[in-house]
Amino acid sequence: MSSPAQVSGPGALSRRTDTGGQPIRALPDPQYGEATAYEQQQKGAPLAEQRPTPNPRMPEPSAGPSPLAQPSEPPVGLFAASQRPDEPITAGAPSGAGPNTLAGGPLAPRAYATSDQLREYAGSDPSGSVAWLANLLSSQGL
Q1: CB 106 within 8 Å of CB 98
Q2: Is the model's pTM score more than 0.85?
Q3: What is the pLDDT of residue 135?
C-alpha cells in the first residue's frame, strides 16, 4: 500500500510539497553548454523518487507437496508424434480449420445473424445500401 501525497498546512504553516524527487544528475563528459541544458531539463521535469526494490525471500523448502509439483506425465517432445492426430493444427487460432472465433466454432457461438443486425440500421440509410447488404447476407445464411 502506498502512502498518500503530502498535504501542506494553511497560511503561515504552508510549505512546498513538490521539492522531493531525485537529485540532479550530471553528464559524464558534456560538450560546451550541454551540462546547463541537461540540468535545466531535470529541474523542469523532475523524476519521481526511486523506491528501493523489495528483496523477496525465497520460500523455505518444505517436506510436504509443493504448489509447483512436477507434472504427472513428461512433456511431449518437439518432434514426437501428435497426441491429437484428428485435430487441425489451426484449432483455436483466429483463422483456419478447427474451432475458432471467426468460424463460429464452439469458442464463439453467435447469438444473432449479421443480416439481422444490419436490418436494424437499414431504416436510417436513405440509399438502401444497408438493406441490400442485409438481404445478400441473409440469402447466404449469415
Answers
A1: no
A2: no
A3: 87
Tell me the pLDDT tens digit for each residue of 113-129: 778 888 888 888 888 88
* DSSP 3-state of 119: helix
Residue 10: CB partners within 8 Å, gap ≥ 6?
A: none
DSSP 13: G
Q: Which three cell numbers stand for residue 59?
A: 520460500
70, three cell numbers = 512436477
CA 97, CA 86: separation in Å to the nearest integer? 12
Residues constituting the chain: 142
Q: State how far the Cα of 116 lies from the Cα of 110, in Å rounded to an integer.
A: 12
Report the C-alpha gap between 69 and 56 in whole angstroms: 21
Mean pLDDT of all residues in 80-99: 80
